[in-house]
Structure formats: structure tokens, C-alpha cells
Amino acid sequence: MRHFGHLAPEVRNRLFHVEPCEFTADDPANLLAMALGATLYSPATRPRMVRDILRQARAGVVSMVLCLEDSIDDSEVVEAEENLVRQLTALADGGPSELPLLFIRVREPAQISDLVRRLGPAVRLLSGFVLPKFTEERGVLFLEALTAAEAASGQRLFAMPVLESPELLHLETRGEVLAGIARTVDKYRERVLALRLGVTDFCSAYGLRRPPHMTAYDVNIVASAIGDVVNVLGRADGTGFTVTGPVWEYFRTQERIFKPQLRASPFSGRAEELRAALIEHDIDGLLREIELDRANGLQGKTCIHPSHVLPVHALSVVSHEEFSDAQDILRPGQDGGGVLRSTYTNKMNEVKPHRAWAERTMRRAEVFGVAHADVSFVELLTAGRAPAGQSE
Predict the structure, then answer these.
(1) CA terminus-to-terminus distance, the chain
(2) What letter would DSSP give residue 336?
(3) pLDDT, tens digit, 9 for 90 and up, residues 213-232
(4) Residue 42 to residue 55: CA distance in whole angstroms
(5) pTM of the entire predicted model
(6) Domain extents in the chain
(7) Which of 87, 180, 264, 311 has the least CB density, counted as fewest CB within 10 Å?
(8) Is the Cβ–Cβ distance between 83 and 49 less than 8 Å?
(9) CA dihedral defined by 302, 308, 310, 316, rounded to 10 degrees?
């Protein structure tokens, strides 16, 4: 796998100063956590699941979640489990294919061991499980089940806990719940690939739903919870975890109250049609939220529609300017600190305060690549757009 691997080599060469690296499901956890990118969720009831997985892989998706939880009705669970086992078994029997990192979102701990047993040899297709409504009490049960399933199958299995319980949002219990989650994930650190934020459930606790012209950071009660999660669980001192961005719910034209959030100038003379398409499908709001995700310490994003994948990946590519700054800060001999004028002569780089940012930027550059100096996200979006109808 590699990000933008679905593009022709000559196109990648035109776009990238440093191309994204290749990686496999067997690579170290810290690389895979950064490489998750846009994690596409799909209900486990999909009758053509194998076709969907293969098609999304060809379109540039590198991580998918097959969901047995909120995306399906309670009455569909048994049928969805049977479908998932049948389809993954067929996929495993179909011979080698380049697949995304595959995860199953379960409802209860017992499903983990049961599904691993029923999958048999097909468990080799899995990278792990997504654990919903994760708290200390529930989390220990999930992680013990995961550990046992890994031992029984011999397959490395990662956990991706979802932080979405009302107790995490409520002010009077937030600190205690966060401390319990921190204890639990630290104990099972080697099994936790990333932490995911369930912002839809956060909103549900207060009867809220953000409209397409607003981001999660415009909903104050949600933004405060995201900030506290990153504060406790996303630190850059070696104790933190990768925390992924919340889902963007919209993919069809909505009636607008406010002006579009995409400036026209980056698209001028070359991609006006792309700008119009992005605005038409409310992707301008998604782009703004992706930028705010990164500014607030989040990496990657939960996605529920294929049209969201490319924007997430395009805005994950490191710009040539960011790469130059990170290189300067991490240059050998700079350990003593000091202040440097940036190569682009437009900012101050402080070696010590900016070091953690530079190290994270270089990890992102490894998996998403570095754009040429004259390549912006517009070129990346234009080059990677799927043909009409492919996202359905």
C-alpha cells in the first residue's frame, strides 16, 4: 500500500518532491497509526462487500472499518455477522490482492473471539477491531478479549477505541473518565493503534447536530471535549496516542445560509469546476474541518462516504514549506536550541519549542509525501479525483 498509489507514476512524480512510502499491514504501529488517513466505514450488511473493498483499494483507500454497530439496525446483527464472515472468507480464498487495513467494529467484547473463531484462516485479512463507547470498565473487557483472540489466532490485532460515551462529555465526570481511559490504554499500549472520536454520539447527548457550514469546533461543548481528550491522551512527550478526527456527515447538496468557505483564488484559471463540485457537495466545510483537526492535534479522519477520502489525503500531504521548516529544525547540530529564520523567509522557527511539531511533520511526510513547491492541495485534489459515479 501507499497513499496516492492509485495514481500513475508519472503523475506522482509531477506532484511530489518526496513520494509517499510503501507500507504493509505488518509494519510498526507508529507508522500505521499515521498512515490510517481517511478511514472509510461501511456497514457489514453490504451484499457486495468484497467488491466494495477491492474497488475502494483501487481508488486510494488504505483503511476501512466493517461496522456491526451503529450503522446497522439491532435486528440485523446476526445477519451482518454471517455476511461479514462469508465475504471475508471469500476474499481470503480469492488469492493475493492489495487490500486496505481492515478493521471490524463490534458491539460487545464476546463478538471479537467469536468472529475470529468463525473467520478461521481469513483472520489474516484483519488488522484489528474498533471498540465502541470505550471507558475504563468496558475497555478492559474489550482489550482482554482482543488479547485472547490474538493469542488464539496467531494474528496481530490492533484496537481502535472510540471515545464517545456521554460520561466523557459531561463536565462532572469527564476528568475521572479520561483518567480511567488513560490508565487502560496505557496498560495495553502495544495493542492500541489509535483513538477515535465519536462526535456524533457527543452531539446526541445534547440533542445537537452540526449543519454542513459548521465544523465540530464551532460546537463549543464538542470542541471542549476534543481539547480535553488531546490534552490527556494526545501529548507529544511519548505518553500520547494518535487521536483521529471526527466524522463528516454530509455528502449531498444542502440549502445554504452562509457563503462557501473556499476562496476562489487558489482555483482561479485552472480548477473552477473542481471548486464548484466541492461546494455543491459541502466538501468546503469538510476541508475546513480537516485543517482544524490538524491544528488541534488530530491525525486522519473517520469517513462515511468515499468522496471524503481524497480531501483528507490531499490535506495530509506535507507542503514543501512545512518540510523545509521541519528539516531546518531537526538538522544535526541544532540540539542546543536557538531561533532560525525559515527557508521561505516568512516565519521564525524555534528549535526547541517546534521540535515535536517537526518530528510529527516528518512522520506525516513519510507516509503522505511532500508536495513540490509549486503544488497545492488543489493540484492534489484535481489529480486524484475519481471518475464520475465511482464514489457511489
Answers:
(1) 23
(2) T
(3) 889 999 999 999 999 999 99
(4) 13
(5) 0.90
(6) 21-316, 318-392
(7) 264
(8) yes
(9) -40
pLDDT digits (tens, 9 = 90+) for 330-365: 988 777 778 888 888 888 899 899 999 999 999 999
Q: What cell does 179 get?
A: 483518567
- Quick one: CA dihedral 166, 172, 178, 183, positive or negative? negative
Q: For residue 185, how far is the Cα from the chain centroid?
A: 18
* Paired strand residues for 303: 40, 248
Q: Which three cell numbers stand for residue 382?
A: 484535481
User: Measured between alpha carbons, how far is residue 344 from residues 148, 312, 347, 350 in Å?
Assistant: 52, 26, 8, 15
Cell of 106: 463490534
- In contact, 33 and 25? CB cutoff 8 Å: no
Pairwise CA distance, residues 323 & 326, whole Å: 5
- Ordered DSSP codes for 212-276: TTS-GGGSHHHHHHHHHHHHHH--TTTT---EEEEEE---S----SS--SS-SGGGTTT-HHHHH
Quickly name the fold that domain 21-316 has. Answer: TIM Barrel (3.20.20)
